[in-house]
Each structure stands twice: as C-alpha cells, then as structure tokens.
Description:
Elements: H1 4-20, H2 29-59, H3 62-65, H4 71-79, H5 83-96, H6 100-107, H7 113-125, H8 127-141, H9 146-160, H10 162-174, E1 177-182, E2 188-193, H11 196-216, H12 224-241, E3 257-258, H13 261-265, E4 272-274, E5 279-280, H14 282-290, E6 293-294, E7 297-299, E8 305-308, E9 312-313, H15 317-327, E10 342-346, E11 361-365, H16 366-374, E12 378-382, E13 385-389, E14 395-399
Antiparallel strand pairs: 1-2, 3-4, 4-5, 6-9, 7-8, 10-11, 12-13, 13-14
Helix pairs in contact: 2-5, 4-5, 5-7, 7-8, 7-9, 11-12, 14-16
The structure holds zinc ion (2 copies).
One zinc ion binds at residues 287, 290, 345-346, 369, 373.
Amino acid sequence: METNIDNLAEAIRGLTDAIRELDAEGMSVDELAEGIPALTVLMDRAEAARLGMVGEFDRRGGADVTAHTSTTSWLKDRCDISGSTAREKVRVARALRLMPLTEAAFGDGRLGYSHVRELTRCHSAHPDVFGDHEETLVDVAGPLSVRDLRRALDHWRQTLDGPGVLDELEEQHGRRRLWLSEAFEGMIRMDGDIDPDTAEPIRVALDAICDRDARASTDDHRTQSQKRADALSEICRQWLDGADTPQIGGERPHLDVLVDVDVLSGWTAGAGETTGGRVVHPEVARRLACDASVSRIVLAGDSEPLDVGRRTRVVPAGMRRALVARDRGCRFPGCDRPPRWCDAHHIIHWIRNGPTSLYNLVLLCRRHHRIVHEGRWQVLRDQGDITFIYPNGIEHTNSDRLISM
Ligand SMILES: [Zn+2]
Ligand SMILES: [Zn+2]
C-alpha cells in the first residue's frame, strides 16, 4: 500500500527531475519571464504544504521524540535554516492552524508566503476578531503588493486597537539586533533584524547617498547592494570626521593603522595592522596615509615604544580649503562627488618625498581614491591638466576647474 510519504517522495522525484532539465541559458527572455513566476507559485505551494506539516508536527509535540527543546530548534536543526527563519516558520504555521480561509488560499496558490505572513501578524494581534474579517482580508490581500498589503493591514489594526499595536511595536523594537562578525576569506558579515522605526533613518540615509551617487557619476557599475555597503561606510566615516563626534579617551574615535616606514614606502615587503589586529595591505595603508593624521612611533628592538610623536594632519586645514576651492569635488573623469566625500590624494606620495602642495594634491572621492590606489591607476599632473592612466594604458585627462596655484 502506498503511503503519504511514498507519494510525496515520488512527487519530489518527478519535480526535481523536471527542474533539473530546465536550461535557463537555452530559454528565451519570454520563457524566463513566464518560468520565474511559475516556479515562485510552485515554491509557495510547497511552502504551504510544508507549513501545514510543521503545524501538525508542532501540535503533536514531534520535537519531544528527538529530545529537541522546541519545534523551532528541531526545524532549525533538521532543515538547516537559521534560528530566526525557523522561529518565523513555526509562528506562521501555528497561526495558520487558526486561519482556515488564509490556509486554503495559501494552499491553492491564491496567496503567496509573504502575504500569508502579513496576515498571520494581524491574526496574532487580534485573534478574537480576525475570523470575522478573514474572508474580506484574504480577498483584499491577493492583488496587493506586499508593501501595500502591509500598509492596508496596519490601518486595519489601528482602527481595531491602538494600544495593542503599540504593544507589538514595543515588542518588535525589543527584537532589534545587529552583528558584525568575521566571515570567510577576510570578509566581515553584517547581519541583523531592525524594527521599522529604527530602520527608517538608515533607509532614508542610504537611499539619499545612492541617489546622489547616481546623479554624481555617469560611469558607476556597482551593484545596488555594493552601493548600499559603500554608503553605510561613507556615513560612518563622515560621522568619525564630523566636528560633533564625541571624544573617547581624550580623542575622537578613529581608525588607527600601524605600519613600518619602509613598508609604507615600498622598500620592504610587509603589511600594516589596525589596532583591532586586521592586516592591512601596504597600498591600502598608503591610501589611508594620503589624507590622515600621522604620528611617528619609535620602537625598541622588542616592539616597546620608545617615543611617540605628535599626531599631525598630513594635509593642513588651510591647504585643504584651498584644494577644495580649486577642485570643488572629485577630479576623476565623469565624477561629481562633493568635497565632503573626498580625500586629498598625493600624486607623488609624501612617503616617497612628494610634497604636500596644491600642485601635488588632487581631490578624489573615496571610491575613486580606492580605484587609483588599489586599481593601480597612474596619476600625472602637467600644469593644469591631471591625467589618469589605467593599467591597460587608457588615459583620461581632466583640466583644473580654476587654475590658481
Ligand atoms: Zn592617495
Ligand atoms: Zn570620484
């Protein structure tokens, strides 16, 4: 006799065979445009079935059998998903057991997972009255985008119960968290959940910088997520550079890099190191040193500091003002980022005896400063002309906007 699980295994085999035969490269754009939503519907229907089973497993205390503390920990363990995802799945599965019309619409493909998740939040907030409104809510939800649905449901909840919404907002706010941790291959992983109120200024600021970038540069091939990562770093950097940044231990917080003079000048191989222990490539150290505060530390043989010199700015404030007046923004061809976003780059690095003079300095935005150093562009100045030479020999020349030196 065939069991449920045999049927499921056979269906999965048939589907995975069919999916394996799909050849995205061999499909026309029209076929892709039809195939992607079709697979999404399939995934949603599979999710409906899975959550139905999770709900039943949970009701019968299935996790006890394997000595897991909860359905969430069982799901996390057996399906190899993150704790927050498992928690959400179990929450939705439990709510769905009490939402028959929503469950039916999910099961027959009228509602996708994201819509269902929003509806379960409403159910959790108002379990007593949700049933009276469920039919209408399911009908309304189908055609709406997730964002519009969220807005519509927020209004629905506000009219029902102000204090309840406030309680949930408080609870949501309490769940905010953000982690920065070491990931593979030297990358840093940023991860977290942020409640809408905390997220709003972050989103507005990131969008503003991405929009400004789009207007400032005609030749920007970064992906949207790369742009957001750069924007976040830029915001933090501007805060560190800002006049109002609070002092910690008598100094404004800053990025410290320790590097041997011979390494910085390129005479010997080696690397710098941040005070946090991150190893820094000498070219990165040279970029940071182009426009930074620098102090000399003399070490005894056993790395004991003998003498620590005063921190001085490489480019004094007055010279920077003059540089801003001349360049008025990033000088990289096609870039229009304002001075606030720019470093003063030494065309011949000061560590190689290049003078800190207007003639030897050029404003470059953080992105182009990085491109010039790490991308090994050569920069040449000839009177009022600055020429950027790409490693493959392509040249771009940009003339001074104001020639007064
Ligand atoms: Zn530089
Ligand atoms: Zn630039």
